[in-house]
Amino acid sequence: MLEKEKSNLEGQALRVADAIAAAGHSPILLQRLSDIERKLTEVDQKIAELRPPKPALTPSEIRDFVRTKIMNLPSLLRDNVARAKRELLEHVKEIVLTPVENMTRYAISGNWEMLPAGDNVILMVARDGVEPPPAFSVLRYAVF
Question: Where do runs of H (alpha helix) occur along 24-131?
Fold first, then answer.
């Protein structure tokens, strides 16, 4: 909605500027252009307010936060099972447990959507030596 209003105001400003260029100095047209520019500034401020703030975290702080939360995953799943199931249902679309090692362990596969959709996603590429921490092995104990 605001983007459409911004586009409309920009179009109006261009038309008024063209009229000033064609007609010469006109106090009415100059005032109209000033009003449009003021409205455009207000719309830009509203758009900026709606954007999420940029995180002030370093990659190291993000990595430490994720590591801490993942290491705490088993207790989080056990503490409030009903809530854990609800939260997982929002991110896990399908889980397939395949028995391995004489039915004593399971290989987990499926579709996990752990990142939010839209502009709030930070794309990252794994580099050499990046692999999941041992905490992921605790997922075999989770009951879904």
Answer: 27-50, 59-71, 73-79, 81-91
